[in-house]
Amino acid sequence: MDIDKSLDEIIQAKPKARRGGRRGGASAPSSARARYAGAVPKAAAQAPAAAKPLTADAIKIIISNLPADVTEAAVRDLMQSTVGPVRTVQMAYNSAGKSTGVATVLFKTRGDANKAHATYHNRMIDNQRPMRVEIAIDPNQAQSLASRVAPQPAARAAANQSRGARGGRGGRGAARGRAPRPAKKTAEELDAEMADYKQTAAA
Protein backbone atom coordinates (compact mmCIF):
# COMPACT_ATOMS: atom_id res chain seq x y z
CA MET A 1 0.00 0.00 0.00
CA ASP A 2 1.24 3.46 -0.88
CA ILE A 3 1.42 5.51 2.34
CA ASP A 4 1.35 8.78 0.36
CA LYS A 5 -2.12 8.01 -1.04
CA SER A 6 -5.16 9.67 0.51
CA LEU A 7 -7.95 7.55 1.99
CA ASP A 8 -10.19 8.59 -0.90
CA GLU A 9 -7.61 7.34 -3.42
CA ILE A 10 -7.33 4.07 -1.52
CA ILE A 11 -11.09 3.54 -1.66
CA GLN A 12 -11.22 4.35 -5.38
CA ALA A 13 -8.15 2.20 -6.25
CA LYS A 14 -8.65 -0.40 -8.97
CA PRO A 15 -7.89 -4.07 -8.27
CA LYS A 16 -4.56 -5.44 -9.52
CA ALA A 17 -4.44 -8.29 -12.03
CA ARG A 18 -3.66 -11.77 -10.78
CA ARG A 19 -0.32 -13.30 -11.58
CA GLY A 20 -0.23 -15.68 -14.49
CA GLY A 21 -3.72 -14.76 -15.73
CA ARG A 22 -6.39 -17.23 -16.62
CA ARG A 23 -5.57 -20.64 -18.04
CA GLY A 24 -5.35 -20.41 -21.78
CA GLY A 25 -5.81 -16.63 -21.92
CA ALA A 26 -4.18 -13.29 -21.09
CA SER A 27 -3.85 -12.02 -17.51
CA ALA A 28 -7.07 -10.34 -16.29
CA PRO A 29 -8.46 -9.13 -12.94
CA SER A 30 -10.81 -11.35 -11.00
CA SER A 31 -14.41 -10.89 -12.12
CA ALA A 32 -15.62 -10.69 -8.50
CA ARG A 33 -13.06 -8.02 -7.55
CA ALA A 34 -13.79 -6.05 -10.70
CA ARG A 35 -17.51 -6.15 -10.00
CA TYR A 36 -17.37 -4.92 -6.41
CA ALA A 37 -14.37 -2.59 -6.56
CA GLY A 38 -15.20 0.60 -4.67
CA ALA A 39 -18.79 -0.51 -4.09
CA VAL A 40 -20.79 -2.30 -1.42
CA PRO A 41 -19.79 -6.01 -1.30
CA LYS A 42 -22.35 -8.61 -2.33
CA ALA A 43 -22.79 -9.95 1.21
CA ALA A 44 -23.48 -6.46 2.55
CA ALA A 45 -25.93 -5.73 -0.28
CA GLN A 46 -27.98 -8.81 0.62
CA ALA A 47 -27.91 -8.10 4.37
CA PRO A 48 -30.92 -6.44 6.06
CA ALA A 49 -30.92 -2.66 6.06
CA ALA A 50 -29.28 -1.02 9.06
CA ALA A 51 -31.58 0.14 11.82
CA LYS A 52 -32.83 3.69 11.44
CA PRO A 53 -30.88 6.08 13.68
CA LEU A 54 -32.70 7.50 16.69
CA THR A 55 -32.07 11.05 15.54
CA ALA A 56 -31.92 12.61 12.10
CA ASP A 57 -29.38 15.26 13.09
CA ALA A 58 -26.46 13.24 14.50
CA ILE A 59 -22.97 14.76 14.40
CA LYS A 60 -20.76 11.87 15.51
CA ILE A 61 -19.68 8.63 13.83
CA ILE A 62 -17.36 5.74 14.63
CA ILE A 63 -15.43 4.29 11.68
CA SER A 64 -13.94 0.81 12.04
CA ASN A 65 -12.12 -1.82 9.95
CA LEU A 66 -9.64 0.75 8.62
CA PRO A 67 -6.16 -0.33 7.45
CA ALA A 68 -3.43 0.17 10.05
CA ASP A 69 -1.64 2.81 7.96
CA VAL A 70 -4.66 5.15 7.72
CA THR A 71 -4.03 8.30 9.77
CA GLU A 72 -6.27 10.87 11.46
CA ALA A 73 -5.29 13.37 8.76
CA ALA A 74 -6.43 10.95 6.03
CA VAL A 75 -9.80 10.44 7.73
CA ARG A 76 -10.29 14.18 8.25
CA ASP A 77 -9.40 14.93 4.62
CA LEU A 78 -11.90 12.36 3.30
CA MET A 79 -14.78 13.48 5.54
CA GLN A 80 -14.25 17.21 5.00
CA SER A 81 -13.92 16.91 1.23
CA THR A 82 -16.96 14.65 0.73
CA VAL A 83 -19.29 15.11 3.73
CA GLY A 84 -18.81 18.37 5.64
CA PRO A 85 -16.65 20.36 8.09
CA VAL A 86 -15.07 18.26 10.84
CA ARG A 87 -14.55 19.36 14.43
CA THR A 88 -12.31 16.52 15.67
CA VAL A 89 -10.92 13.15 14.56
CA GLN A 90 -9.57 10.65 17.10
CA MET A 91 -7.82 7.45 16.06
CA ALA A 92 -7.67 4.57 18.58
CA TYR A 93 -4.30 2.91 19.29
CA ASN A 94 -3.33 -0.20 21.24
CA SER A 95 -0.72 -0.43 24.02
CA ALA A 96 2.02 -0.85 21.41
CA GLY A 97 1.05 2.39 19.68
CA LYS A 98 -0.41 0.63 16.65
CA SER A 99 -3.71 1.77 15.14
CA THR A 100 -6.71 -0.43 15.92
CA GLY A 101 -8.41 0.68 12.72
CA VAL A 102 -11.07 2.64 14.62
CA ALA A 103 -11.60 6.40 14.29
CA THR A 104 -14.17 8.69 15.94
CA VAL A 105 -15.27 11.70 13.88
CA LEU A 106 -17.19 14.68 15.26
CA PHE A 107 -18.76 16.94 12.63
CA LYS A 108 -19.60 20.61 13.02
CA THR A 109 -22.96 20.41 11.25
CA ARG A 110 -25.87 18.33 12.53
CA GLY A 111 -26.99 15.67 10.10
CA ASP A 112 -23.53 15.16 8.58
CA ALA A 113 -23.09 11.96 10.59
CA ASN A 114 -26.14 10.49 8.84
CA LYS A 115 -24.74 11.63 5.50
CA ALA A 116 -21.38 9.98 6.22
CA HIS A 117 -23.11 6.73 7.18
CA ALA A 118 -25.16 6.70 3.98
CA THR A 119 -22.08 7.49 1.86
CA TYR A 120 -19.38 5.24 3.34
CA HIS A 121 -20.91 2.39 5.34
CA ASN A 122 -19.70 -0.90 3.76
CA ARG A 123 -17.61 0.89 1.09
CA MET A 124 -14.58 -1.22 0.11
CA ILE A 125 -11.03 -0.14 0.94
CA ASP A 126 -8.20 -1.49 -1.25
CA ASN A 127 -10.90 -3.75 -2.71
CA GLN A 128 -10.25 -6.03 0.27
CA ARG A 129 -12.26 -4.88 3.29
CA PRO A 130 -15.51 -2.96 3.88
CA MET A 131 -15.33 0.21 5.95
CA ARG A 132 -17.83 0.19 8.83
CA VAL A 133 -19.55 3.45 9.83
CA GLU A 134 -21.77 3.66 12.92
CA ILE A 135 -23.74 6.68 14.13
CA ALA A 136 -23.12 7.66 17.75
CA ILE A 137 -26.26 9.04 19.42
CA ASP A 138 -26.02 12.14 21.59
CA PRO A 139 -26.94 11.03 25.17
CA ASN A 140 -28.54 14.44 25.80
CA GLN A 141 -31.20 13.60 23.21
CA ALA A 142 -32.06 10.20 24.67
CA GLN A 143 -35.47 9.92 26.34
CA SER A 144 -35.62 9.28 30.07
CA LEU A 145 -37.20 6.02 31.28
CA ALA A 146 -39.87 7.97 33.20
CA SER A 147 -41.09 9.58 29.97
CA ARG A 148 -41.39 6.15 28.33
CA VAL A 149 -43.50 4.50 31.09
CA ALA A 150 -47.28 4.61 30.50
CA PRO A 151 -49.38 6.55 33.07
CA GLN A 152 -51.40 4.68 35.71
CA PRO A 153 -54.95 3.75 34.54
CA ALA A 154 -57.59 6.22 35.80
CA ALA A 155 -59.78 3.52 37.40
CA ARG A 156 -56.91 2.13 39.48
CA ALA A 157 -55.82 5.60 40.56
CA ALA A 158 -59.38 6.44 41.70
CA ALA A 159 -59.62 3.20 43.68
CA ASN A 160 -56.34 3.94 45.45
CA GLN A 161 -57.56 7.41 46.40
CA SER A 162 -60.89 6.07 47.71
CA ARG A 163 -59.14 3.40 49.80
CA GLY A 164 -56.88 5.98 51.38
CA ALA A 165 -59.78 8.35 52.20
CA ARG A 166 -61.85 5.67 54.01
CA GLY A 167 -59.06 4.40 56.31
CA GLY A 168 -60.04 3.09 59.85
CA ARG A 169 -62.84 0.81 61.11
CA GLY A 170 -65.62 3.37 61.08
CA GLY A 171 -65.13 4.09 57.43
CA ARG A 172 -65.05 0.43 56.49
CA GLY A 173 -68.21 -0.31 58.49
CA ALA A 174 -70.09 2.55 56.87
CA ALA A 175 -68.96 1.40 53.45
CA ARG A 176 -70.43 -2.07 54.11
CA GLY A 177 -73.87 -0.62 55.01
CA ARG A 178 -73.83 -1.18 58.79
CA ALA A 179 -76.30 1.00 60.81
CA PRO A 180 -74.85 3.05 63.68
CA ARG A 181 -75.59 1.75 67.22
CA PRO A 182 -78.19 3.80 69.24
CA ALA A 183 -76.90 5.75 72.24
CA LYS A 184 -77.77 4.44 75.78
CA LYS A 185 -80.58 6.32 77.67
CA THR A 186 -80.15 7.75 81.16
CA ALA A 187 -82.21 6.65 84.25
CA GLU A 188 -84.15 9.93 84.21
CA GLU A 189 -85.17 9.42 80.60
CA LEU A 190 -86.31 5.87 81.37
CA ASP A 191 -88.41 7.09 84.40
CA ALA A 192 -90.03 9.80 82.29
CA GLU A 193 -90.96 7.27 79.58
CA MET A 194 -92.45 4.94 82.24
CA ALA A 195 -94.57 7.74 83.72
CA ASP A 196 -95.89 8.66 80.27
CA TYR A 197 -96.76 5.01 79.64
CA LYS A 198 -98.73 4.69 82.92
CA GLN A 199 -100.70 7.88 82.23
CA THR A 200 -101.58 6.62 78.77
CA ALA A 201 -102.68 3.24 80.14
CA ALA A 202 -104.85 4.79 82.91
CA ALA A 203 -106.66 6.99 80.41
Notes on the protein architecture:
It is a single chain. The chain has a domain at 57-138: RRM (RNA recognition motif) domain (Alpha-Beta Plaits, 2-Layer Sandwich). The protein starts with 6 loop residues before the first helix and ends with a helix. A hairpin with a 5-residue loop joins strand 2 (86-93) and strand 3. It has helices at residues 7-12, 31-36, 42-46, 72-82, 112-120, 145-148, 154-166, 169-175, 187-202; strands at 60-64, 86-93, 99-107, 123-125, 129-136. It has a five-stranded antiparallel sheet. The protein is rod-shaped. Residues 24-37 have low confidence and may be disordered. The chain contains nine helices and five strands, in the order H-H-H-E-H-E-E-H-E-E-H-H-H-H. The protein is α+β, with helices and mostly antiparallel strands and 203 residues long. The longest helix is centred in the last third of the chain and has 16 residues, at 187-202.
In short:
A hairpin with a 3-residue loop joins β4 and β5.
What form results from the Cα inertia axes? rod-shaped
Helices and strands, in order, run as HHHEHEEHEEHHHH
pLDDT below 50 for ≥5 consecutive residues: which ranges?
A: 24-37
Count every beta strand, where a strand is a DSSP E run of 2 or more residues: 5
State the strand order across the main sheet.
Answer: 2-3-1-5-4
Overall helicity = 25-40%
Second CATH tier, the architecture of the domain at 57-138: 2-Layer Sandwich
CATH superfamily of the domain at 57-138: RRM (RNA recognition motif) domain
User: What is the CATH C level class of the domain at 57-138, in words?
Assistant: Alpha Beta
| Mean pLDDT score | 74
And the CATH topology of the domain at 57-138? Alpha-Beta Plaits
Structural class: alpha+beta
- Characterize the quaternary organization of these chains: single chain
| Radius of gyration computed on alpha carbons | 41 Å
Termini distance?
A: 134 Å
Strand count, sense and closure of the main sheet?
5 strands, antiparallel
Biased composition (Gly residues): 165-174
InterPro entries: ALYREF_mRNA_export (IPR051229), FoP_C (IPR025715), Nucleotide-bd_a/b_plait_sf (IPR012677), RBD_domain_sf (IPR035979), RRM_dom (IPR000504)
Keywords: RNA-binding
Pfam families: FoP_duplication (PF13865), RRM_1 (PF00076)
